[in-house]
Amino acid sequence: MTPTPENPKLDPQLEAIFKQLLQEVTLLTLKWQNARDLFSSKERVEVLNRTAGGFFGLVQITFRDDAFLALSRLTDPLQSASKDNLTILRLLEHLDRNGHPSFHESLEKQIATAIDKCNPFRLWRNKKLAHSDLGTALKVATEPLPGVSVKQINDAVESLQLIMNSFNQYFFDTTTVFDSIIQSGGPDSLIHHLRRGLEAAEKE
Questions:
Q1: Three-state DSSP class for 23?
Q2: Res. 141 pLDDT band, cuts 50 70 90
């Protein structure tokens, strides 16, 4: 571990918060990578539809909703209903601005960007996933839920990864290569076995 030029000791509570947030972002990354890989091409979607289209349709919705919820939680306010939240804003709350002025400013900008990128998912969480807004449910709301693209989810996830790696680099002189998370028995394996099953069925 190499100290940074400003090198303040890392507050134990701040370190614990960061490590838990890093676990949450890593898990979000792994889940979202699985979702992207599983539905990454027309050929793969065709295989899924031919084997259990209805089931995998629900899987796709579940992956999407889970990502929306995770992105919302990680960028929530410090408190909800007087209860403390584990959120990226905790990093700023516990980081000494005077001890780390330049890093605090940089982190503050990165967090503001991440929160902005996650606002569409928070609307979905608040009006449909965690609650059921009547106007939204009956499709008579004056402000319908915004459309969300895969790119928007990718960008939001990457904005959280950037925050984790900025913190990691500053205090621990290391980074996490999120795109290289190793997983056995993932989407590639599933698609492989589904193809073999389809080929066997065609031979019969």
A1: helix
A2: confident
